[in-house]
Design goal:
six-stranded parallel β-sheet; about 1250 residues; alpha/beta; 50 helices; Rossmann fold
């Protein structure tokens, strides 16, 4: 049955000849639609396009592989339906070379095909991450040493101001950050120069015109709006019945300040506004007492006024704490060190590029910039496409970009240069969702998407936008919950897009009605992390606390909650494999979660991106390599001795050291091995033998290490020590084995670098660990099946799960980057503190503060989008969890949102979020699910302005430590009762008659066709012979005599040639008889000539030819049977080496087999001939038989020949009149009666 596309999806598939931006919401089927668009272009009846004329760029290699696989499968299916379609046949062959790749893969394609345009050696390779880290450090060291040697004034100023302590690590970090940021721009040098312009402002007029000064006024405007709302709300409470009316005088004074401030901001009077805020004295609140005034309302007014004062103070401290003249002066103080930073960064850029060219390696930024260099020429501000760009622009019918929201400026320019500009075509197809742009740390620029989102028309046009809103993944309850939250917390000011009707999620999937008729509600679990119970436990972390709550909830879900089975389309009980726990980061979270869940008997799998170098098996082998390089290292040597390789326990190590305390540990081992031991001390003898073996093996490995590649050395160590087999045999063996295999692969990659040898490999690994390069443990395919999966939100993007725990909502956002001394913004440049060494002063510049504000907003916007990705992974049930402290205070703070009428929460609330609860709880404050919690904490009921745009079902639950402890006790009690029940179980007693009958019936079941388990599908005639008479095996063996045991001497030593015996000799005779020409076999010479012809044509080897006795062949040819066969050959009635397969009833093969099943019998008949329209059957034997042993051959082979005869009669419909065995040993034909 074909797919039914929505109207919007059909537009995406069918529209042509335009630039298209598809804004595809989560679960909207964008990949399926993109694939269908590609297929529709291929199969277009009017304008069919070859698949290799489409450029399709995805974000990851996995996505590219999946898309190519889908397209290939679809083409194969269409070709199956239309096998004669030549166009489809062509696409099936072109798909393997189609440009379905990542942007990096496409850049590599450009470089491979046009490397000559930039004088690049085509033999380059892509550098490995660890190698680049080491190279960066080497180059940085050289660049800094050269800069110190030059003693440039600007550089020395940079060092004096920003090198902290006794090291220049801060300078190095600044250079790295600036270099990395610049490389995401098409023209790094120009961008750095533009950043310097901030510090080259010379007048107040120029200062006023800077973009960042405009942002200061935006901050002031925003604060004024918030202050106005706070003060007016406080004044309204004062005027309420039982309100603190006597506070109004102070509030009037505050409002007067507000009016004055509004005027100053409107006039953009920086110095005046600064003076106003710094010099203002706030009026004191009245101390009048009136029993009719509600104390809680007094507190509310005080809190609101304090919040307003806090906003003024923050504005003053950050942006209006100095004069314009001072701002200008501070910028000029920073100019010289910043110019020094720019100079040394550009020097590092050039030196790093030169070193990579020397070693002929590239990194991913090189690929993008080299591709850009190939595609265009730049002179001044003029960009001219190159001949390569013309060629590629004309080649591609359409350029498709998936996950467009994660593109950067370089990628955008490359895309435009290969699009259809050459022949004035609009042919760029972009698909993405700005709400899922979560790769800001990779310098993605979602504003590229948003610029087109606002510019492109929804109407039919050359630049058209199509919105896909329908979600075909999740239940309506999940979508309404997501919509309810994000309508209130995501706006263009924070998140990049206003979450209104046009961006909300709409149900596209259809779920059958559940048995209980209810839709699963979204759960919110608030786990208190403060309380007396926790203080008593003391050592439990917030991660363990939350994991415990989740574990208890999982135990209540599995086997109870129903989920829709994807394959059957019916409901089934939820299993562990239906559940995922999503975390913002795995570091510090995944491991405690795994441990807690595992301790509760819950199978769990974590796909870790860290922890590789901490894996015990990797540590052990690396330690072994270290002591192979240099055994005089006590810590690695102790680790290896205490591992399965050394096999020593701590007591044995203590014995060695106490007996031989002098020198390093390795010297102690040598001394212990060589010391004289009392033969009666059996334990010490065993230990000495163990140490001797260890030292001997280590010596062997050290000798190997001199000339053996590292990866081969590791493999040899694993085999020789048995450690590879050991780790695969212990729990988690598959994972451990995969980790060691990765170590071998990394060693192979290392061998391809410019570094060589074991010593350098050990240093290489140590530096990787120093610079925190972690490969992450190997992710095994299907490792998470049947287990609760724990993964990061980033890793979950593009995936879906029936039940999702969005965990860690209480984890504080990481603002470490924006609190550093050196900040970089792609549009506002880099910001630093002004440092006055002679005055020993460090002062924050307004420029840096405004950059910090902007970075914080963008960071919070990214966190919002990350939250959106997490919540939209759920198909059926969403559970939001997190720990929270001081719940009463938090609820009091968010309760002010209850009466708010505007849907979008104020930027002051959203812009100061510290964790995900700071977004979620203010949004939930207007949902009735929060009322019980508000009432529990005595927060006065207010009229809730419910967000009516969504009918979302939430269940908000507070979980205390006491409840968790109680749950633990109940769980342990239940386990103890179950254990006791099982131990006291009376197997003779029937507890449930119905279950007993079922079990009895099942265990008593016998497979009715069990006798067929030994029945083969096909048997050979030789096997039938063995079945026919069990005693024949001994008889067969009796025909051969066991020779005396002789000394085995290889033929190349003895000089003797190996004699062909037994089956090999029989093969040689059968080959000659198969090819024998009876008309030229009358004497020795003729037969020798035939054998020579067989060897020359390689139908027989010389060794086989030598084992044939010519006299045997002549005897056969001269025999009566031989002459009859010669006559038959002359009449073309002789058939040799004839294979056959016939069907036979099973009971004819084995009397014990009762049934009508058929077995295939196969064999090869040596020879038969037709004589008087009847068959004569002949079988050659070379068995060693004593004279008079004819009956032995008959007894041994008669069944086989009877089967041959039966087969011939069935196949040829002729009678077998005679059957003969011809024995070459006896030179005699033996008839079978």
């Amino acid at each position: 049955m074909g797919v039914t596309w929505t109207e919007e999806q059909q537009k995406v598939i069918s529209l042509r000849d335009r630039n298209i931006l598809v804004s595809a919401a989560a679960g909207s089927g964008k990949t399926a639609v993109l694939v269908q668009r590609i297929l529709s272009k291929i199969m277009d009846t009017e304008r069919p396009v070859d698949i290799d004329r489409l450029l399709i760029m995805t974000f990851t290699r996995a996505a590219a592989g999946e898309m190519k696989e889908r397209i290939s499968a679809a083409i194969d299916q269409m070709l199956y339906d239309n096998p004669d379609n030549e166009h489809l046949q062509r696409q099936a062959s072109l798909i393997h070379n189609a440009q379905i790749t990542t942007i990096d893969g496409f850049c590599a394609y450009i470089i491979r095909n046009y490397f000559h345009m930039i004088d690049l050696d085509p033999g380059y390779r892509t550098a490995e991450e660890g190698e680049l880290k080491l190279l960066r450090e080497d180059v940085m060291k050289e660049v800094l040493e050269a800069a110190y040697a030059r003693k440039g004034e600007k550089f020395l100023s940079l060092v004096e101001c920003y090198a902290t302590g006794k090291t220049d690590d801060e300078i190095r970090d600044m250079i790295y950050k600036l270099y990395d940021a610049s490389m995401s721009h098409p023209f790094p040098e120009e961008w750095i120069e533009e950043c310097l312009e901030v510090y080259q402002v010379d007048s107040l007029e120029d200062l006023h015109d800077t973009p960042w000064m405009k942002l200061i006024w935006d901050a002031a405007d925003e604060s004024i709006v918030q202050v106005r709302e706070l003060l007016f709300r406080a004044a309204a409470i004062c005027r309420e019945e039982s309100g603190p009316y006597f506070y109004e005088a102070a509030l009037d004074d505050d409002i007067l300040l507000l009016r004055t401030a509004e005027t100053a901001v409107k006039e953009r009077d920086y110095n005046g506004f600064s003076e106003l805020l710094k010099n203002h004295k706030y009026a004191r609140l009245s101390t009048k007492k009136d029993l009719s005034v509600d104390e809680e309302k007094k507190i509310q007014v005080k809190d609101l006024r304090d919040s307003a004062k806090g906003l003024w103070n923050e504005l003053t401290e950050k942006y209006f704490n100095q004069t314009e003249e001072l701002i200008l002066e501070y910028l000029q103080y920073c100019r010289r060190p910043m110019e020094g930073l720019a100079e040394v960064t550009l020097q590092y850029k050039d030196a790093f590029a030169d070193r990579k060219r020397e070693q002929n390696i590239l990194d991913f930024t090189d690929m993008e910039h080299f591709a850009l260099d190939i595609l265009m020429h730049k002179e001044g501000d003029t960009i001219t496409p190159s001949a390569a760009a013309w060629e590629l622009s004309a080649r591609y019918d359409e350029v498709m970009v998936d996950e467009y929201q994660d593109s950067n400026l370089v990628q955008e320019m490359i895309t435009n240069l290969v699009a259809g500009w050459a022949d004035k075509r609009k042919n760029i197809f972009m698909v993405g969702d700005v709400k899922q742009s979560i790769y800001r740390f990779r310098l993605a620029r979602p504003e590229l998407f948003m610029e087109k989102y606002h510019r492109y028309s929804l109407e039919d046009s050359e630049e058209q936008r199509i919105d896909l809103h329908k979600n075909f993944r999740s239940r309506g309850t999940v979508l309404s919950s997501v919509n309810y939250l994000f309508r209130q917390i995501m706006g263009e000011d924070l998140g990049g897009i206003t979450y209104e009707d046009e961006n909300a999620l709409y149900t596209g999937a259809s779920f059958p009605e559940r048995a209980d008729g209810k839709e699963p509600e979204t759960e919110v679990l608030l786990i208190e992390k403060d309380g007396e119970e926790l203080e008593e436990q003391g050592n439990q972390t917030v991660q363990e606390l939350e994991a415990l709550a989740i574990a208890q909830r999982i135990q209540k879900l599995v086997g109870i909650e129903e989920v829709l089975d994807k394959d059957s389309g019916t409901y089934r009980k939820a299993g562990y494999g239906d559940i995922v726990i999503l975390l913002r980061t795995s570091a510090g979270w995944a491991e405690p979660f795994s441990q807690v869940l595992a301790s509760k008997g819950i199978p769990v799998y974590t796909a870790s991106r860290t922890g590789y170098f901490a894996a015990q098996e990797v540590v052990t082998i690396l330690n072994y390599l270290r002591i192979c390089d240099n055994p005089m290292q006590d810590i690695p040597l102790t680790g290896v001795l205490h591992s399965a390789i050394g096999g020593c326990n701590t007591q044995e190590l203590a014995i060695i050291r106490s007996k031989c305390p002098d020198g390093m540990l390795y010297e102690s081992l040598l001394a212990f091995r060589d010391r004289k031991t009392d033969d009666r001390d059996e334990e010490e003898l065993v230990l000495r033998e163990k140490i001797s073996h260890f030292i001997e093996l280590l010596g062997e490995m050290r000798d190997l290490a001199v000339y053996t590649p590292v990866h081969e050395l590791i493999q040899y160590i694993l085999r020789k020590t048995g450690y590879g087999d050991y780790v695969r045999a212990i729990p988690g063996g598959a994972q451990r084995g995969a980790n060691l295999h990765m170590l071998v692969e990394k060693a192979m990659e290392y061998e391809k670098t410019s570094y060589r040898g074991l010593f350098n490999f050990v240093r290489y690994i140590e530096k990787l660990q120093k610079y925190e390069v972690d490969f992450g443990e190997v992710n095994l395919a299907d490792a998470g099946n049947g287990a609760v999966q724990i993964m990061t939100i980033h890793k979950s993007k593009g995936l879906e799960f029936p039940i999702v725990f969005a965990a860690g909502m209480g984890k504080q956002f990481n603002f470490q980057d924006i609190n550093s001394r050196f900040l970089i913004h792609p549009d506002m440049g880099f910001g630093v503190d002004v440092i006055l060494p002679e005055k020993r002063l460090i002062l924050s510049t307004v420029h840096k503060q405004i950059i910090r504000r902007q970075l914080k907003r963008e960071s919070l916007g990214e966190e919002l989008r990350v939250l959106y990705v997490a919540l939209t992974r759920a198909k059926e049930k969403l559970i939001i969890t997190g720990t929270i402290a001081k719940l009463a205070d938090v609820l009091q703070a968010v309760s002010w949102q209850m009466g708010r009428r505007e849907t979008l929460l104020p930027i002051g609330t959203r812009g100061e979020a510290r964790n995900y609860w700071s977004f979620i709880l203010p949004a939930l404050a207007r949902h009735e699910a929060m009322l019980p919690l508000f009432r529990e904490y005595g927060i006065a009921d207010r009229q809730i302005q419910v967000c009516e745009m969504e009918h979302a079902e939430f269940k908000v639950q507070k979980i205390t430590a006491a409840e968790l402890v109680q749950g633990e006790i109940l769980g342990q009690t239940d386990s103890q009762m179950q254990e006791k029940l099982l131990k006291e179980w009376d197997s003779r007693k029937i507890y449930d008659e119905e279950i007993h009958e079922i079990l009895t019936e099942r265990f008593a079941f016998r497979y009715p066709f069990e006798y067929l388990k030994d029945l083969p599908v096909k048997v050979s005639v030789s096997e039938l012979k063995k079945r026919s008479w069990r005693g024949e095996e001994e008889k067969e063996e009796s025909l051969f005599y066991e020779p005396d045991i002789q000394e085995i001497i290889p033929t190349f030593v003895s000089g003797e040639k190996e004699e062909y015996r037994g089956a090999a000799r029989g093969t040689a005779y059968h080959r000659l008889m198969e090819c024998l020409d009876y008309t030229h076999a009358e004497d020795v010479h003729q037969i020798q000539k035939q054998i020579r012809m067989l060897t020359d044509s390689r139908k027989m080897s010389p060794e086989e030819a030598q084992c044939i006795r010519i006299a045997d062949i002549l005897a056969f040819v001269d025999s009566k049977l031989g002459q009859r066969m010669k006559t038959a050959a002359e009449q073309n009635a002789l058939y040799r080496e004839q294979p056959f397969v016939i069907a036979q009833k099973m009971n004819q093969i084995e009397a014990a087999w009762n049934g009508e099943e058929t077995v295939l019998v196969q064999g090869i008949i040596d020879a038969y001939f037709i004589e008087d329209d009847e068959i004569v059957l002949v079988d050659y034997k070379t068995d060693k038989v004593s004279p008079g042993g004819e009956q032995d051959l008959i007894d041994l082979y008669h069944i086989q020949l009877e089967d041959y005869a039966a087969a011939l009669e069935r196949m040829l419909q002729k009678k077998v009149k005679e059957t003969y065995i011809y024995s070459f040993t006896l030179r005699k034909m033996i008839p079978l009666s």
